[in-house]
Amino acid sequence: MRRGRVLLARTRAVDLEGRRLLLEDGDVLPYRHLVVATGSLPSDLGVPGVGLLALGFAQAPALVPWGGALALAALFHGVDESALGLFLWAANLGLWGLAFGEGLGYLLLLLAYGLALYDAYRILKNRMKRALDIGVRHYLAGLFFLGLALLALPFHPVAAALWFALGFVGLVVTGMLYKILPFLVWTHRYAKRAGKEKVPLLKEMLPEGAGYLAGGLLAFGALLSPWFPWAVWAYALGALPHLYALWEVMRR
What we know:
9 helices, plasmid, FAD/NAD-bd_sf
């Protein structure tokens, strides 16, 4: 991490006006931006109204794959809150509309997809790191399959379901794993040793060649699966380099 450091400490209080964290050991840590990450299980921290507005409380369970994609995007530079709000409402109403066979539901899903594309464009345009890493590439490939699924939905529901499940969900989940797992393993094994001895860089934790091979096989198998049954075997074959990549992360 350039010009950064990892500090494991407990916070006693937050000085919002002074932009400082007051730590339990008495130290004071200034900050420019403060992110309160509540973990994989959301907590409202006792703040009234959070349950009505925060992602993870009020949204429908059917939005989990879409929300997962946005969560992956947020790892890079965050999301546009206004676009995110419109996206969630449109996707929610669209899913309910489709359940009752309403054409309006389909149009709302297309609107939600357009908002997701807009936010992906904004994130990529404003990113500080110019090179696209493996997690971002999987996320963008997943968005491509989501678009295919939405376009095919009125004409070929089976193809839409396969492209959504195998293409969108599969690629987004693998992309999230390639982004999150190396970070968790590195933090657990090397965070306390960083700066005191030589430790691997975060980008060195994942064998990207195996990850790209897995992503290519997943995308190839998902794309052809509606017409060629053997394509599912190509998709399943992608699990081998994928599992190898994750194994290499765990053993480093």
